Amino acid sequence: MEERESDARSWLSALLAARGDASIEAARGEEAEALAGLLLEVVSQGREAWPEIALSSDAFVAHLAGLLPPEEPLVTALGELRAADLFLAWACAEGDAVAIAIFEETFGGELRIVRARLRRPEAESEDFVQQCRQRLLAPPRPKLRDYAGRGDLRHWLRVTLLRLLIDYQRSQKQRDRREVVADDLDGDGLALQPSADDPEMQYLKRHYGDAFRQAFAQAAKSLPAEDRNLLRLHVAQGLSIDQLAGLFQIHRATAARRVARARGALLSGVRSRLMDELGLGRAELDSVMRLIESNVHVSVQRLLGTEPDQRTP
Q1: Which end of the chain has fewer CB atoms within 10 angstroms, the N or the C?
Q2: Is the dihedral of CA 62, 67, 72, 78 positive or negative?
Q3: Are residues 296 and 216 in the same domain?
């Protein structure tokens, strides 16, 4: 055990040096011991989950150093990692044959699911699956290296494959655009409303509809009263920018700017909540947000009510 604790202290020193921030001076004494113990736990969890993988623990810690958010306290960042998932994803990105075989056995079903959603001839579907494998695993920048360990690897993989599917279909010019519309008010908040012939939208609805609804409801609730008021008047009651300007005795450019600010704050709130809820990295979340930002409409009758707040912008 002493040797492992010594390893942990060495790993912590390397991790702090690689981060190059003030945490080098801060991590002393009991705090350093706690961080070293937490780092040892992360490495041990990864190794114990996949004992067949023989890559160096030092190399894994070096990967962590480049992965952990510099603005977040180390104790928080390390404590939130899904160590087993992260260790496997990193080993695959390193090209380890054993890790790749484990990945195929464990997550190959996700590739089969996305292949079925393509609904193309056998040869084309197989070509798409091979392209997915290459993007996930092949150098110089395998996408599995981007997995940050902040959420379930299977969820991350589903979103990544969805993004690849959409990109592939766009490249084949099978669809001109992806449309996202409001929920039909059969539940609280917002949801994606899929068309019958759009498997990608059906996929999002099925797997992430609840998360979308909850994120919109929470984001709307957290808006300042004036922003909720503007969105309610503009979206639910249909007031134009000119009408809003007249109502509040402000220039139309000011009214437009404030509506845009309110909408931006809502979407920003949705984005941050989805990132926390689904554990997605920025790149993966970008692809999901692109699907909803351009045509999103707020079900303000359900989210905000019908009566405006008694405030002005």
Answers
A1: N
A2: negative
A3: yes
